[in-house]
Design a protein that fits this description.
Blueprint (H helix, E strand, L loop, with lengths): L2 E6 L2 E6 L6 H7 L18 E5 L7 H4 L7 E2 L9 E5 L24 E8 L10 H9 L15 E8 L2 E7 L6 E7 L3 E8 L4 E9 L9 H10 L3 H24 L6 E8 L1 H7 L20 E4 L12 E4 L9 H10 L8 E5 L3 E8 L2 E8 L19 E7 L6 E5 L7 E2 L1 H13 L25 E4 L2 E5 L5 E3 H25 L8 E5 L8 H6 L11 E5 L1 H11 L3 H11 L1 E2 L8 H7 L8
Parallel strand pairs: 1-5, 9-12, 12-14, 15-24, 17-26, 18-20, 24-25
Antiparallel strand pairs: 1-2, 3-4, 3-5, 6-7, 7-8, 9-10, 10-11, 13-14, 15-16, 16-17, 18-19, 21-22, 22-23
Helix pairs in contact: 7-11, 7-12, 9-13
GO molecular function, one term: iron-sulfur cluster binding
Protein name: Putative metal-binding protein
Length: about 600
């Protein structure tokens, strides 16, 4: 059989393969993951690799993409020995989550410890060890006795709420929990020192499932098309979380057996995949999830490698597309307790929106697509070092400035940079309300804006550098994304009989959202013009909600109630939604 010699960073691996499948499929089948947002359908041009050892002619489809010396793995069907060179980036932990302090809530931790001396049963007593322990700690299940060392002295009971979940010999005072936010793009973890009410360590890494598709629908398609798809995706996320938990414990010098709970917040599809439950029903009408209630079980049952006593708590959802991350966000922001009409929006690949009106809450979800996170864009990339995160155009001088993460030369443009560039193009008149770019022929000969225009890949583009440009197709992608979100906002408002001006506060949530300025949001039409001066930023509310229920056990009841109280509006059932979509598709006019 022919072999692949795969190089990545300082590592290399030999793979035997049977010809007949694409190079991408072969790599994925052997757990070598590379970015392929379109799930190997040949539409994104992101699975570029360098090959040596044999020549394979570029097909007409592959020639559509300007990949330089790289070849698209989804379009190569190897049959020879090959060397394959991949970008050095793999699943990489940043080692840091931007959370400096825990939420300010009444301190009633869900997990608590109690230590008591327990004497062994005497010869004359008709009693048992279980009865002696229960006299100290209250009733508990027989399973807590399995493997328990029985001797006189101190014992420590671990309680989840008012229920004993573990009994340990000796005196134990350390008490840790882990909050996990499984985002479609990024996974974040915080190790909480519950006893001292502080952050002990944190981790963040790119969701390894991205190599099976950038968005939820693409991943669901992968699972439905591959018999082992659910096992691959669930295994990828479980292994990554287990690894991150072990790294945090080592960094903070914490015994894994002192970690008593892992709390998971995610959208509905991510929770299904994490629990190895096929999410196929989420991707087709009537879009019914397999489950949406909370899950409580031993972490080991979910395939997580943590401590002997670690429990898993998966937060409840509302529907297929309003997940636990949004319920957690509602809890984190106390949206139900805020005065007046409030709109909560988590902007990302899937835009989720909650409208709070009086005592009622109604939510909707809109498929914004990955463009807002820099994906499926000509020179798009994630928000990492080298990414342009904002653009300023000076129409008086013809100069421009780029805000590049980490400084240095730009390597591409992330979502906020793309929105910033388009907001500026709208401001200086390079793009009209229909999303069309102004042609050079329509400009005066001395118009300084001419210097910004050019072509990339045969398409008209705003050209600010070799790796910093925005084509007309990129503008169209953003226009579709912003229309999806704004149409969801307007649909909720019209359903409630409200205008945008009657909303007193627009809460923008999410790690991505906090990098979007008011100008980006309003000038591009992601939010209504009336939102100016009313926008607040809440950060990663999915994580904040998970932290809240760690620090305050009674809040779990409120979380459960929120998941039942939030109503859901399915946009496809809204009368006249097609016309509403068209009506909200225009960029705001500067006139």
């Amino acid at each position: 059989m022919p072999k692949l010699l795969v190089h990545r960073a300082n590592e290399q691996r030999s793979i035997e393969y049977a010809p007949g499948e694409s190079l991408l499929h072969i790599l994925l089948a052997h757990e070598v993951y590379i970015e392929n947002p379109c799930n190997g359908r040949g539409s994104c041009g992101k699975c570029g690799v360098i090959i040596r050892g044999a020549e394979y002619e570029r097909s007409a489809d592959e020639k559509r993409f300007d990949t330089g010396s790289k070849r698209l793995a989804c379009m190569i069907y190897p049959k020879d020995d090959l060397e394959v060179f991949l970008d050095g980036e793999t699943e990489k932990s940043s080692g840091f989550v931007n959370a400096k302090e825990l939420p300010d809530v009444p301190y009633v931790p869900f997990v608590s410890l109690k230590t008591c001396p327990v004497e062994p049963p005497g010869l004359r007593e008709r009693t048992s060890w279980k009865e002696m322990l229960e006299a100290a700690f209250g009733p508990f299940g027989h399973e807590l006795l399995y493997g328990l060392e029985l001797r006189g002295g101190d014992y420590t009971a671990v309680y989840a709420g008012d229920r004993a979940i573990a009994i340990r010999p000796g005196r134990h005072e350390e008490n840790y929990s882990v909050a996990v936010d499984i985002g479609t793009t990024t996974v974040q973890l915080i190790l909480v020192d519950t006893a001292r009410k502080r952050i002990a360590a944190s981790r963040a890494f790119v969701n390894p499932q991205k190599d099976f598709g950038l968005d939820v629908i693409t991943r669901i398609s992968y699972i439905s098309e591959h018999p082992d798809g659910i096992d691959r995706l669930s295994s990828a996320i479980r292994k990554s979380i287990s690894k991150a938990v072990a790294e945090m414990a080592a960094e903070a010098k914490v015994d894994l057996d002192d970690i008593y709970e892992i709390v998971v917040s995610a959208n509905t599809a991510m929770e299904h995949i994490f629990m190895a439950v096929p999410p196929d029903s989420i991707g087709r009408a009537p879009y019914a999830p397999v489950f949406k209630d909370e899950i409580l079980q031993a972490a080991s049952f979910a395939g997580l490698q943590a401590g002997k006593f670690t429990r898993l708590y998966v937060l409840p959802s509302v529907s297929a597309y309003i997940g636990a991350d949004i319920v957690s966000g509602a809890l984190a922001t106390d949206i139900d307790e805020r005065p007046g009409n409030v709109l909560f929006i988590d902007i990302g690949t899937n835009g989720e929106i909650i409208l709070k009106q009086g005592a009622g809450m109604i939510a909707t979800s809109c498929a914004a697509g990955p463009a807002l996170e820099g994906m499926n864009i000509s020179c798009g990339m994630r928000a990492q070092e080298g990414a342009v995160q904002d653009v300023v155009l000076n129409e008086a001088t013809g100069e421009f400035s780029l805000d590049v993460i980490g400084g240095g030369e730009p390597k591409g443009i992330c979502g906020s940079g793309l929105l910033g560039a388009i907001a500026e193009m709208l401001r200086v008149g390079l793009v009209d309300k229909n999303g069309r770019m102004v042609k050079e022929s329509a400009m005066a000969p001395d118009d300084v804006r001419r210097g910004w225009l050019g072509e990339r890949g045969g398409k008209a583009a705003l050209c600010l550098g070799d790796a910093a440009f925005v084509t007309k197709s990129d503008i169209r992608s953003v226009q579709l994304s912003k229309t999806a979100i704004l149409s969801g906002v307007v649909a909720l408002l019209e359903n409630a009989g409200l205008t945008a001006g009657e909303v007193g506060e627009y809460i923008v949530a999410g790690q991505f959202g906090k990098h979007l300025t008011e100008d980006m949001l309003v000038r591009t039409g992601l939010l209504p013009q009336e939102a100016r001066g009313r926008i607040t930023y809440a950060g990663n509310t999915s994580m904040k909600g998970a932290l809240k229920v760690i620090l305050n056990g009674p809040m779990r009841k409120k979380l459960s109630e929120l998941s039942k109280e939030i109503e859901f509006l399915e946009l496809s059932t809204v009368e006249g939604y097609d016309k509403l979509f068209v009506r909200t598709s225009y960029f705001p006019s500067e006139e």
